[in-house]
Each structure stands twice: as structure tokens, then as C-alpha cells.
Amino acid sequence: MLDALFFRSWLTATADAVDREAERLTELDSPIGDADHGSNLRRGFRAVAAVLEKETPDTPGAVLMLAGRQLISTVGGASGPLYGTLLRRTGKELGDATEVGPARFAAALRTGVDAVAALGGAAPGDKTMLDALVPGIDALDALDNSLDSFGAAREAALQGALATTPLQARKGRASYLGERSIGHQDPGATSSALLFEALAETADGVGGASREGSRG
Question: For every residue of the chain, which 3-state class applies, written as one string?
């Protein structure tokens, strides 16, 4: 079961991953965006990590909703509302449960991804963050929804991000470039893949601790 500590750990790991990859995200954004994706997300997720140190929500849903609000208030451009919506909608779907199983979390995250699609008016193949989010959540649903399935989701999201390179953007700032957007990996899909990378790392830590405990 996944508790509030798991979700705080996931978001802290995401903040670390974004901090580590911020310059690369900005480099990806430079030719097809406003060259600020990495810096914006770094600021936003640093703020998330900071507020989670000060406040201690006691349910998974409350953790995600707090993080979503923080992103919306601190991240400029489209990224704040999109990532904030993802986390807030997922958290709202989880409700007041103090613990949730991987299957319930996957279903709630699907609701969050659907909310992002509705907000941005985008679909997979449009060269947006959905090109990583949708394969990631599909991988969670396709497997047994155990902690181990998060590793498959990480790989699916990564491959989805890489697959945006030959696409022509149909939504967002990059769509203004038309065919010139072809040949560039989408920064939003790349940062979305970091969410699943951090999720898998967090699940690996929980699974490893459980296995150690069962042997002890």
C-alpha cells in the first residue's frame, strides 16, 4: 500500500530529477519553445519540495493536491497549470484514503492525465507531454499494478518522449513552427518521463525495503 510518505518521497525525487535535468530541458525547449521549460519546472518543483518539508499532509490525496497548488502558483507559462492539474486531479480522485493500492493510484493518475488532455486540448501524437504520460499510464494498467509495474511505466514514458522527435507539433508553442518542429524531442514529454522515472525509483526503494524486511 502507498501512504502519504510514499507520495512525498515521489515528489521529492521528481524535484531532484528536474533539478538534475533542468539545463537539458531548457536546451530541448530552445528551438521549439520559449527556452524556459527547465528553469520554470526547477523553480516549481523546488517550491513543492520546500512546502512538503514545512507541511505534512497525512493522506496521498492531500499531498498531491498541495503539490499541484504550489506548481500552479509558482510555475509560469503552460507548465504550471498542466502539471498542477495533473497532480490536483489525481489527488482529488484519491480522496481521503490514508493508503491506496497501486491499482487505485493508477486509476486516479489516469483521471489526472485525462484532465491534462482536456485542459490542453491535446491527444497522443500531438508532440506534447501526453506522448509520455499516456504510454506511462497505459503500462501501469497493462501489468499487474504491483510496485514492480512502475519500472515498465518508466520505460514506456521514456520511449514515448523519445518518439516525439520525428513528430510535427500540433499543439502548444511548438505548433507555430509547423514542419520546423520536426526533429526536436518535445521538452514537455521529456519532463513528464521524469515523473515516471522518479516514481519507479521511489517504488524500488519501497520494494527493496520490504524485501529486506521479509528476510530479516
Answer: CEEHHHHHHHHHHHHHHHHHHHHHHHHHHCCCCCCCHHHHHHHHHHHHHHHHHHCCCCCHHHHHHHHHHHHHHHCCCCHHHHHHHHHHHHHHHHCCCCEECHHHHHHHHHHHHHHHHHHHCCCCCCCCCHHHHHHHHHHHHHCCCCCCHHHHHHHHHHHHHHCCCCCCCCCCHHHHHHHHHCCCCCHHHHHHHHHHHHHHHHHHHHHHHHHHHHHC
Position 211 in a domain: no
- 211: pLDDT strictly greater than 50: no
The CATH number covering residue 167 comes to 1.25.40.340
Is 49 within the bounds of a domain? Answer: yes
pTM above 0.90, yes or no: yes
Whether 42 maps to a domain, the answer reads yes
Q: What pLDDT, in 10s, does the model give residues 157-200? A: 999 999 999 999 999 889 999 999 999 999 999 999 999 999 99
Cα 87 to Cα 57, 169, 188, 209, distances in angstroms: 14, 24, 15, 26
Segments forming the whole domain that contains residue 59: 2-205
